[in-house]
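In this supplementary section we document a worked example of the pipeline. Step one takes a protein sequence of length 602 as its only input; no multiple sequence alignment statistics are reported here. Step two produces a three-dimensional model, which step three serialises into structure tokens for compact storage. The input and output of this example are shown verbatim.
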Amino acid sequence: MKRSTAYSCYSLYRGMSNLPPSTLVALFTRNSSSFHSRPSEPTQTRNNTQLEQRLRVSRSKPKEVEEAMKLFDEMLQTRPLPSIIRFTQVLGQLAKLKQYSEVISLYRQLNLLGVALDDYSLSFIINCYCRLNQMEFSLSVLGRFFKSGMEPNVWTFTTLINGFLLVNRVPEATEIFGKMVDSGCKPNVVTFGTLIKGLCINGNNNGAIQRLRKMELSPDCKPNVVVYNTIIDSLCKETLIADAFNLFSEMSIKDIPPDVITFNSLIDGVCRLGQWEQATRLLNEMASQNICPDVWTFSILVDGLCKVGKVREAESVFEVMIKRDTVPDVVTYSSLMDGYCLRGEMDEARKVFNLMVSKGLMVNVLSYNVLINGYCKHKKIDEAVILFEEMSRKGVVPNTIAYTTLMDGFCKLGRIQDAKELFSRMQECGQIPDVQTCAVLLDGLCKNKQLGMSIEFLREMEGLKLQPNIVICTILMDYFVKAGNVEAARDLFFSLSLKGLHCNVKTYTIMIGGYCKAGQMKEAQKLLAEMEEEGCFPDGGTYSIFIRGFINNNELSKAMDLIHQLVPRGFSADASTMEMIIHLLSREKVDPALLPLIKRSA
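The serialised model returned by step three reads:
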């Protein structure tokens, strides 16, 4: 299990919300109470009274789509037509059921009937368009505000900002924020929090901190614990722990009490870096402030310990959790399972899985994925297949990760046909493959020397509208190099920038290896210099390939010079390079003084 994924879901839920439809519905419902006290329509009919009663029921209990639609149709037949407030209440019920397209369709019907929409209903429609990622339409609705002489309020602008952030269009969200301020509409804590969270999700922590500073200058919109938690959590995920602790200290100075979420983010951050003393100090500080660890605190500790192989310590944390009457959840159990899987103790992992089931917890796709991944990593593919089939029988729908993991297991055992059949089954079951899924299958095809099938599969990717990323291109380059077709690898390498792709260490290393294999050492050295100029620094694998290249091309003196330069910098030769050097030493081809140097670095 990946802690980042599990904890990310937690922090998003517990942090600033994504302005779900219920937020706006609650707003409408809250404001509609004032309308109820107004004088009723002079020609109120019996049908109106019945509709009123049904609306009260619909507000208290969400209805099925069909019933809400039927109620809306009845309202359209009523004369006089109910007010826009009543229509909005029904549309709100449909939005709670996530029927955003239906809401838009009904909104258009109201337009055709000439029903005048107010600012609340228009804000509501904007939110629905945002949920459908139809931002241009949401902007057109904003235009209706101005045409109708209405002023968008803070919720209208906040909804739009959130919508753009949901589709990773940060510049547009920032622009809307600026227009909001220019129009004289003051952003509130939710507006700032929404923008700050969007910036954090997109990795722009500096931008988020700048917004925090602007909040501090506002006389009536000071940052609260939720805003600080959002940024601290993002900094911790980027392992910018020092910056996170600076904000944590700032909270104390500004008399903003931290909560369990604040501490959970910091504990998660220090655990990622293996700073267990810091984690202990934070736990003690929680106790001193009478903040009780929750299930997520314990889950973070269990997961962090398991990730570094400290499963016994994780078991101890698990036991303390039970003693404190904190009930472990699926994430806690899955983290412990993952720890056993990493150690190859699959029987113990399965025991934890069975224990989770016996406790009545709803085992989800995450738990199954952890166990399937463990079986695949330890080449127990039959057990993985049995578990995969068990998922479907028990009503747990395998996701893209489950399919990809099992495909990877098949490919690593050379069972390419099984992997391809699973890829087809995945699409038949409605799961859309992503680029990672395609990379796994393509890697399996290439490593099993299935060039024809690889090319066919690339065409299939095009049909799925999936553009090859740097991982896909690196896999192909590696295949070309190993097949001795260095020219094809070079052509692909130099086309990467045209595709807007940035080379990583592995991409450069593969191309350097291709040049070394072809005896083109000058080209390899030239590419190494280019690599460093681009800010992509070689690792031990890159240098090992260079050393082997010099040795294989009988340039022993250059190989020895490179080793003498690298060993003081902490270079560790890999097994293949070490074997070549020892072989040369046995034949007295190289300086014997190299052996102690290599041993010290190994």
